[in-house]
Sequence to fold (361 residues):
Amino acid sequence: MTADEISRAVVITGGLGFTKLVAKRYHGKYVRLLDRLEAPEDKKRRLRGIADRALNR
Amino acid sequence: MTDGFVAVNIGAGSPADDGSLSEKNAGDPAGNRGGGPAGNRDGSPAEKRYVGFEEALSLVREEVDSVLLSSPSVVRTYTAHLALARGKFFRAVSLLTCAMNGDGVIDENAAKLAAAVEVLHLATLVHDDIIDDADIRRGLPTLQKKFGRRIAVICGDYLLSKALQIAASIDNKKDYLDIDMPDYIARICVGELSEQINSGNYDLSVRQYLKIISGKTAALFEASFFAGAVLSGCGRTQYGVYKKLGHYLGMIFQLTDDCMDFEATESVAQKPVQSDFEKGVVTLPVIRALREDPGLKRRQHARK
Fold:
C-alpha cells in the first residue's frame, strides 16, 4: 500500500476524524483541569490560548 | 509546609527603569524557594530578577542563539545552520506562562529553563532527522542532509549537553534537582525507542500508541509546565495539576501533528508530509483506519 492509498484510507474510514476527536477530548480534559488551577485569571486565559493553538494548528 | 519546601509568593514590587523587576527575597536570605544554597560568591543574598513575558521570551531567544551561534567554531560551523530557521517556541512559551507569578511577572531563571527545553527539543529533532533520513526541517535542509549523519549525531549530542548545562545554571540548584530534567529526557528516549520497536507494527493498539506519544512528545511539555510551576512559586500542591496540563497539551500537540502529516502541504508543515507511514511509523489515524477496514490490514500484512 502506498502513502497515497493510506492517505485516502484514513479519510474514508474516519481515521483522521477519530484522531481529531481524541485530540479534542484531551483539550476538554485540559480546559476542565484549568478550572482547578490556583492561578490568576490572566494566566489561565493564556494557558487556555496555548491549548487552543495546539488544537487548531 | 511539606518536607522542608517553603512556597513563597514573591511580590514583584514596582517595575524597574529597564522594564524588568528585581527584588531581594526578604523571607529567605538565600533568595530561594527551596532553601538551596543559592547566593552571590561573597555570601550576600542572590538578587532575584523578574521580567515581563516578552522580555523573558527575548532572553530565551538570546540564550538559544548563543548556543547555536557562539559555540566553539568547530561546532558553530554546523549549529549556525539551525539558527537560520527558528521554531515556534511552543514549549518555551508554555514554560514561561506557567512561570508567571501572582503579579504576572517571571523569574529570570525561567528563561534559562525555557531555553534549555528548546535546545533539548532541537537536539531531539536533529536526531529524529537522522533516524528518518529526513531532508527538510523548518523549511531548510536538515543537518544530516547538509553535513552528513555523523556530524549530525555529534551535533545532537552537543545540543543535549548544552541543554543540561543551561538548565543546571539556574540560581536555585534545588529547583533544578526537583525538576529532574534527565528523567524527562529518559522518558523521551523510551518513547522514541518504543516507536522504533513498533515500526511497521500494524497491530499496535490505541493504548500502546498513546503510551508512546506520552513519552516521545508529551514528556517534554510536561517538563515545561512543571519547570514553570516550580519557578512560579505556586507551591507543591499545584505541581501535579501543572504536570497533567503539560501532559494533555503534549498529547494534543502530537495528535494534531499526526493529522497534519495527512492534511498539510509541505510548505505549510515546513517538513515532509505523508511521511510517517512511509517510514513505518504507525500513527492513530492509521490505527483507526486499519481497525475500520480489516481488508486494509490484511493487504498490509501480505506486503510485509
User: Anything to note?
Assistant: Residues 15-36 of chain A form the longest helix (22 residues). The helical segments of chain A are 3-12, 15-36, 41-55. The mean pLDDT of chain A is 95.
